[in-house]
Amino acid sequence: MTAQQKPLDEGEYNFAYLDEQTKRMIRRAILKGIAVPGYQVPFASREMPMPYGWGTGGVQVTASILGADDCLKVIDQGSDDTTNAVAIRGFFEKTAGVETTFETSKASIIQTRHRIPEKDLREDQIIVFQVPIPEPLRFLEPRETETRKMHALEEYGLMHVKLYEDIAKNGHIATTYAYPVLVNNRYVMDPSPTPKFDNPKIDKMAALQLYGAGREKRIYAIPPYTEVKSLDFEDYPFEVQKFDKPCGLCGAENVYLDEVILDDKGGRMFVCSDSDYCEERREAGHLGPMAADPNAMTLAGGTSDQHSEEPAR
Amino acid sequence: MTALNQTSGQNQTSAPLAAGFADPVQDAQRGFRTIMNAMARPGSLQALATGGLKPPAPLTPVVAAIALTLFDYDTPVWLDVPFARSEAVKTFLRFHTGAPIVSEPVEAGFALIADPAHLSSLGKFHQGTLEYPDRSATVILTGQTLSNEGPVHLSGPGIETETAFSTGPVSLAFWDQVKANNAQFPRGVDLIFAGSAEIAALPRSTMITVREA
Lengths: 313, 213
Description:
Chain A: It comes from Roseibium aggregatum. The structure holds 2 protein chains of 2 kinds. Chain A is an alpha/beta fold. Chain A folds into 2 domains: 10-143 and 176-224, Bacterial phosphonate metabolism protein PhnH (Rossmann fold), CATH 3.40.50.11310; 257-300, no CATH class. Chain A contains 8 helices and 12 strands. Chain A has helices at residues 20-35, 56-65, 83-95, 144-152, 157-170, 199-202, 275-283, 294-300, and strands spanning 41-42, 71-76, 99-100, 109-113, 126-130, 181-183, 187-189, 208-213, 218-222, 228-230, 257-261, 268-272. Chain A is globular and about 55 Å long. Residues 302-313 of chain A have low confidence and may be disordered. Chain B has a 7-stranded mixed beta sheet. In chain B, strands 7-6-10 form a 3-stranded antiparallel beta sheet, with helices on one face. Chain B is α/β, with parallel strands linked by helices. Chain B has a single domain (16-210), classed as 3-Layer(aba) Sandwich (Rossmann fold), CATH 3.40.50.11310. The radius of gyration of chain B is 17 Å and the shape is globular. Helices cover 28% and strands 22% of the residues of chain B. Chain B has helices spanning 2-8, 24-40, 61-70, 81-85, 87-97, 174-183; strands at residues 46-47, 77-79, 101-102, 110-113, 138-141, 145-155, 163-168, 190-194, 198-202, 207-210. Chain A binds chain B through residues 14-15, 20-21, 23-25, 27-37, 39, 41-42, 64-68, 148-149, 151-153, 184, 186-187, 204, 208, 221-227, and chain B through 24-26, 28-30, 32-33, 35-36, 39-41, 69-72, 74-75, 109, 129-134, 136, 138, 156-160, 185-186, 190, 203-205.
């Protein structure tokens, strides 16, 4: 990783890659999305220099709101240093020359693929979600004309039937990610494939939430402090995943954990999916039960002497 | 075209066309973030940087900054009488944004209102449809004096509990019109209030209560 503030390459790309007319079109869609929380605004999604499915919707939203004085954080499944996050962060470093960070509290814009940071977001932050399938009713009704009418008429019975069938088959609601929510008591919305663990964070979040789906050409938004309810039944209330162990490295409880395979003899551990949160806790001296394990140490990166790729930013 | 505008420009400023943003990319981005923050937090006052704009009257720098940030050839614009009378304003908007200026309110994506006290109704603008509520108009009221005190209380998305808000000059029936507009959610227009240096917005999602003091 080289210097943060690179001079803009004159004559190559516009600031943040997109041309100004495209940004204006996306900006207008964002405003309408904010005015109608949870409604999917169609927009003229552009081809981006990355394939669909790699966050082209989120990238276009970020490119349209990003300014020279912003500080950008990009996460992929909670982690700052996995492929998608590294690629998108590099894209904006190169085309916009903005400052980037791994620290949740330092970022003014956070683009995410499928997680919400564990730390509470503030009013002055914006979180941008990359969305693959924005239509929560799509797998129940394949026709766009029909799902549009269902949203118009607030006809969401089919979604409740789906959740009911979950209960009939499995004894509980088996949907664990992309768990449908009701926004501001009006629109049923797909919160992108975040684990349902993150659904309570969407409710009355202090930060503005923007959702971009590039292939499906939809933008939607949830303004700060908007009521967002996860769909459920009175006798089968919404519940988040529970973990019976704390994070192996930092000992955090009540966070979302990822399973990591350590060797080929069945060794495994559960660690925070939010890598920045985990690192911050370890720096503050919190240690989990696996922290001393040599196999775990190599994964923990910065805490031992090897792996000098310490993301000190 | 320009010759025509010059000859018919009976306005006080026979000066050459006023400049647009000094830095079109960054100025538009700053303008948009301010407008977005205003829309995401209904009733909050947001200072809008105008990038040194000196547009022809009755356009103000704040209104011109909103126009240059959001308008282009995709957004038909409707002007009320004081704006529509000014060739200089129309020339400025046409040159810098390329937006077509329409005569029927219902065809407009944006409406610029120079004299909000005489705005007869919000219902004449495109309200969007139930299937495409995003197609409704955004109405920009100019020359407003904004404050976070007053009998109007806002709540709903973007507002933690409740916020007081007042703006003027507006017509007597204005708040009744806004209430009726917002009652048809998800249809309805969205409002932007432009002050002398700050803006506020009122999307259709906001609940409005007027309490007599």
